[in-house]
């Protein structure tokens, strides 16, 4: 998979972000995307081939693997990366709309089309809410699909066509556990950053509106 599009998207969003938003971009790019491409993808690369059961009954290993790993960790992680980055497109599209509107009418409507205010502020807040919601949804999904944030060394399977309860062994469980904890930690960090930025923007513009009203009353 080529991650060039996601990298370009994050770089583009960085121009319109607040300081907290830029930290979020750095975390997603350096601690999630690069770790995924450089290391995590290789660890899960042959997970099906390296999944072994102590019986050679045809179809048993495949059925047990599908039962314990209905969706590959690494594919779900890739989907999570894509989904939590996609709401940022709303901001990019809104800025592009502003710039095209000025170009089409050959008139200056905004002091700075990329400044977070007015309608763009609402779009930015919606993107933060969506990113936070998606992060939480994927964490819950990970927890439900794999019965917790853990990689067992041994799983017992009694699903047909296995003739009885068989022992199945997962390859590199310690490595996978480390990266799974890293995934959960970075997701939680991104949720905290998104909520912090959301609170900061709401507080900042609430104060700004209050001061404007106060000045008008004084006048």
TrEMBL record:
Coarse class of the protein's main subcellular location: other
InterPro entries on file: Connexin (IPR000500), Connexin_CCC (IPR019570), Connexin_CS (IPR017990), Connexin_N (IPR013092), Connexin_N_sf (IPR038359)
TM helices/strands, residue ranges: 21-39, 77-97, 118-143, 178-203
SMART domains named in the record: CNX (SM00037), Connexin_CCC (SM01089)
Source species, domain of life: Eukaryota
Subcellular location(s) of the protein: Cell junction, Gap junction; Cell membrane
Molecular function as annotated in GO: gap junction channel activity
Residue span, Connexin N-terminal domain: 42-75
One of the record's GO cellular component terms: connexin complex
Gene Ontology terms: biological process: cell-cell signaling
Keywords: Cell junction, Cell membrane, Gap junction, Membrane, Transmembrane, Transmembrane helix
Membrane topology: Multi-pass membrane protein
Role, per record: One gap junction consists of a cluster of closely packed pairs of transmembrane channels, the connexons, through which materials of low MW diffuse from one cell to a neighboring cell.
Family: Belongs to the connexin family.
Subunit structure: A connexon is composed of a hexamer of connexins.
Protein name: Gap junction protein
């Amino acid at each position: 998979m080529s991650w060039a599009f996601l990298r370009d998207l994050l770089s583009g969003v960085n121009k319109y972000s607040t300081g907290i938003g830029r930290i979020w971009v750095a975390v997603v790019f350096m601690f999630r995307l690069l770790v995924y491409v450089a290391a995590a993808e290789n660890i899960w690369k042959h997970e099906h081939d390296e999944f072994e059961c102590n019986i050679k009954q045809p179809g048993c290993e495949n059925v047990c693997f599908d039962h314990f790993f209905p969706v590959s960790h690494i594919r779900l992680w890739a989907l999570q990366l894509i989904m939590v980055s996609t709401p940022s497109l709303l901001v990019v599209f809104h800025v592009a709309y502003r710039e095209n509107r000025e170009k089409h009418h050959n008139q200056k409507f905004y002091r700075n089309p990329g400044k977070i205010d007015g309608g763009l502020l609402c779009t930015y807040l919606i993107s933060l809410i969506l990113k936070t919601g998606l992060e939480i949804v994927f964490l819950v999904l990970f927890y439900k699909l794999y019965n917790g944030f853990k990689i067992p060394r041994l799983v017992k399977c009694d699903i047909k066509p296995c003739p009885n309860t068989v022992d199945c062994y997962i390859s590199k469980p310690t490595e996978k556990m480390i990266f799974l904890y890293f995934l959960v930690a970075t997701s939680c960090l991104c949720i905290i950053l998104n909520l912090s930025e959301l609170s900061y923007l709401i507080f900042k513009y609430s104060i700004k509106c209050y001061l404007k009203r106060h000045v008008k009353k004084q006048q």
